[in-house]
Design brief:
The chain is an alpha/beta fold and about 400 residues long. The protein has two domains: about 40-240, Glucose-6-phosphate isomerase like protein, domain 1 (Rossmann fold), CATH 3.40.50.10490; about 245-385, Rossmann fold (3-Layer(aba) Sandwich). It contains 14 helices and 14 strands. It has helices spanning about 45-50, 50-60, 75, 80-85, 95-110, 120-125, 145-155, 170-175, 195-215, 220-240, 245-250, 270-285, 320-330, 365-385, and strands at about 1-5, 10, 65, 70, 90, 115-120, 135-140, 160-165, 180, 260-265, 285-290, 310-315, 335-340, 355. The strands form four sheets. A five-stranded parallel beta sheet has the order 6-5-7-8-9, with helices on both faces. A five-stranded parallel beta sheet has the order 11-10-12-13-14, with helices on both faces. Strand 7, helix 7 and strand 8 (about 160-165) form a beta-alpha-beta unit. Helix 2 runs parallel beside helix 9, helix 2 (about 50-60) runs antiparallel to helix 10 and helix 10 (about 220-240) runs parallel beside helix 14. It is globular, with a radius of gyration of 22 Å.
């Protein structure tokens, strides 16, 4: 509560009976260029192309690969809580929930701590079991997502430690959580999140690697290898963005489709979900993401010559299994768009279209594989005449139930 009078300083209290708190001024670090299109046709396209710099900004001051150091000041004084955690619960909505799914793979691999990922909208209503030694990680681009805020309150009431990840300085989630990290992605104006997703995964990668090396569940050589690779990710994202014209051309072949299936395995299963979400959000095409191994449990019945199937088929992680899935789709005359590793030969013989990404460690491929899917969704939506930045019925920040 703030009391403002013309003849004295502002008075701030948390409640009517609370003592007056000291006020302070925080200057927002935002320039006019950040909230203008800068020559791009849409904010979404601008934000897709800002991702190399956004990821660098997320890493800046936190990753020193040549020294083998990750510095997360918000984690330093609370590290023991993470190391002694019974489990980690990740709560989020939409795109942030997909980032949380990637984090489940990262955290369990590097820290060997059990991880559960929950929709905040379900978590808050199902009387969840929360132990005092649980860690809650809440993820939100805006920091104002109503369901996530309510879920945080429930977790805190039950004694859990809450770590927040968001993009907006001074947002409600940044104030409500015990500690956390900003992504430093810069303003995201387009309703469909792009750089928020990749920078959230970047922060979560730093968190998982730092905990893994401190806990001793990650060897020093593996740790160093991952730091060097993570530092190279922004340049690899730039390489993928150079294929914009190819992706635009592929989009023209699919702009009139009514349905689409996305498939991925392991770390890239959440990317399949995110790719499908992007397509349906801005182009209004019905799209669904599945783990590739689940194709036989229903979705395969939908595949015919009219059904486009986007398959994430990088060489790292279950490659042979994915190639087998692609063969099954091809035998049923499905139209295949494959995201493949640079120099791939096997998938190129089967797929109708291929988009290459640079080689990387498996755990970082979600940052790379999501880039062509963002561009594909963008160009399909543009060619359908859709309002890309402000799709119908959607809001940038979901502040109501």
């Amino acid at each position: 509560m703030a009391i403002i009078r013309c003849d004295r300083d502002i008075s701030i209290r948390k409640t009517i009976s609370d003592k007056v708190r000291k006020s302070y001024i925080e200057k927002l670090q935002m320039s006019l260029d950040n909230i203008q299109k800068g020559g791009y046709d849409h904010f979404m396209l601008k934000e897709i192309f800002e991702q190399p710099q956004a990821i660098r900004d997320t890493l800046r001051g936190r990753l020193l690969s040549n020294e083998g150091v990750i510095t997360l000041s918000s984690l330093r004084e609370h590290e023991n809580k993470f190391l002694k955690a019974r489990r980690i619960l990740i709560i989020a909505c939409g795109t942030s929930w997909h980032a949380g799914l990637v984090a489940e793979y990262l955290l369990e691999k590097f820290t060997r701590i059990p991880v559960e990922v929950e929709y905040a909208s379900e978590f808050r209503y199902r009387d969840p079991i929360i132990f005092p030694d649980d860690i809650i990680i809440a993820i939100s681009q805006s920091g104002e997502t109503a369901d996530t805020l309510s879920a945080i309150n429930i977790a805190k009431e039950r004694g859990a430690f809450v770590f927040g990840i968001c993009n907006v300085v001074g947002s409600s989630i940044s104030r409500l959580t015990d500690t956390g990290c900003y992504t430093h992605a810069g303003p995201e104006i387009g309703v469909a999140s792009t750089k928020a997703f990749t920078t959230q995964i970047t922060v979560l990668s730093l968190l998982a690697l730092r905990l893994g090396i401190v806990k001793g569940t990650l060897s020093r050589s593996e740790y160093q290898q991952h730091l060097v690779e993570l530092e190279s990710i922004p340049d690899k994202v730039s390489e993928i963005l150079n294929q914009e014209s190819l992706i635009k051309e592929i989009a023209s072949s699919f702009k009139d489709t009514n349905n689409c299936i996305y498939l991925g395995r392991g770390y890239n299963f959440p990317v399949a979900l995110e790719g499908a979400l992007k397509l349906k959000e801005i182009s209004y095409i019905h799209a669904e993401g599945y783990p590739a191994a689940e194709m036989k449990h229903g979705p395969i019945g939908l595949i015919d010559e009219q059904m486009p199937v986007v398959v994430i088929a990088t060489k790292k992680g279950h490659y042979d299994k994915v190639v087998s899935n692609i063969s099954e789709i091809k035998s049923r005359k499905g139209r295949i768009i494959a995201i493949v590793s640079e120099g791939d030969v096997r998938v190129k013989q089967l797929a109708d279209y291929c988009i290459e990404i640079p080689e990387s460690l498996e755990c970082f491929t979600p940052i790379l594989t999501t880039i062509p899917l963002q561009l594909l969704s963008y160009y399909i939506a543009v060619q359908r005449g859709c309002n890309v930045d402000q799709p119908r019925n959607l809001a940038k920040s979901v502040t109501v139930e």
